[in-house]
């Protein structure tokens, strides 16, 4: 795992054909973190969602070196070797936290990590395995969704504001999880306004977009339909 790396090769991210940010030219190696910074609307989430395979790059490429997928073959896509934790929790409110984590462990497959109860203990939620996810407070929900990172071992963690709802103690605990991940050859790519203990991390700053490029954005019909369904 020591020689593995993720490289952004003239990567341009956006929605459909419209570029939002980039080109990015940077590499992150095993044991390293990349912190993505920038003002609201700059394109941090767009970049992370592209890395997670949820959006297609507008240009350029994501190149992988030495990253091995669950089947033992070199990974073809970053999503196959990555955990993505976005703004949404990805947990069903009506089923227990343990069942949610068991679902994720099965869905992600690959190298087994901690059992759900141990993963919950790692985020300071020991003993509440059988509580429905929807009963938790905002900060507890965030911590439970971060426990996903521990139930299956994956080399690359893609994290979008992972500690937004967390109190100080929980932020510190999570910083410890990230540090352990890096120490064991993991890679973390995170948009975060909190330090996360990543003082040594490389920073990728995305500047503010100008008004003209904001106005030129096309509406993503699929996202709009999802938003309307939710409202
Ligand atoms: N579904 C969508 N369709 C079209 N444009 C979108 C869509 N989602 C986001 N955008 C636009 O893409 C740009 C970048 O948004 P993005 O969410 O990546 O920013 P961000 O840097 O993560 O911001 P924040 O700090 O507020 O989370 C914004 O101009 C936003 O309006």
TrEMBL record:
One Pfam match, by short name? ABC_tran
Biological process, per Gene Ontology: cytochrome complex assembly
Q: Which organism is it from?
A: Jiella flava
Annotated signal sequence is: none
This protein's source sits in the domain of life called Bacteria
Keyword hit for Signal:
no
Protein name per the record:
Heme ABC exporter ATP-binding protein CcmA
The family annotation for this protein states: Belongs to the ABC transporter superfamily.
Occurrences of domain ABC transporter (ranges): 6-231
Organism lineage = Bacteria, Pseudomonadati, Pseudomonadota, Alphaproteobacteria, Hyphomicrobiales
The UniProt entry, under InterPro entries, shows:
AAA+_ATPase, ABC_transporter-like_ATP-bd, ABC_transporter-like_CS, ABC_transptr_haem_export_CcmA, P-loop_NTPase
Q: Entry's PANTHER family?
A: ABC TRANSPORTER I FAMILY MEMBER 1
GO MF term (any one)? ATP binding
Q: Which UniProt keywords apply?
A: ATP-binding, Cytochrome c-type biogenesis, Membrane, Nucleotide-binding, Translocase, Transport
Which gene codes for it?
A: ccmA
């Amino acid at each position: 795992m020591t020689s593995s790396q993720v490289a952004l090769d003239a990567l341009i991210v956006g929605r459909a054909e419209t570029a939002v940010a980039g080109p990015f030219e940077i590499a992150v190696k095993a044991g390293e973190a990349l912190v993505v910074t920038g003002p609201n609307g700059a394109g941090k989430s767009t970049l992370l969602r592209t890395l997670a395979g949820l959006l297609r790059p507008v240009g350029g490429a994501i190149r992988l070196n030495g990253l091995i997928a669950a089947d033992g073959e070199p990974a073809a896509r970053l999503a196959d070797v990555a955990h993505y934790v976005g703004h949404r929790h990805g947990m069903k409110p009506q089923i227990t936290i343990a069942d949610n984590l068991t679902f994720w462990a099965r869905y992600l497959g690959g190298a087994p990590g901690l059992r759900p109860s141990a993963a919950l203990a790692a985020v300071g939620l020991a003993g509440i395995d059988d509580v429905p996810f929807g009963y938790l407070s905002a900060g507890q929900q965030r911590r439970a969704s971060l426990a996903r990172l521990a139930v299956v071992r994956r080399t690359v963690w893609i994290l979008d504001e992972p500690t937004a709802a967390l109190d100080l103690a929980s932020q510190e605990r999570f910083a410890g999880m990230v540090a352990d991940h890096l120490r064991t050859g993991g890679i973390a790519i995170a948009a975060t306004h909190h330090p996360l203990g990543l003082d040594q991390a490389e920073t990728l700053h995305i500047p503010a977009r100008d008004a003209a490029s904001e106005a030129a954005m096309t509406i993503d019909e699929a996202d709009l339909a999802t938003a309307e369904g939710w409202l």
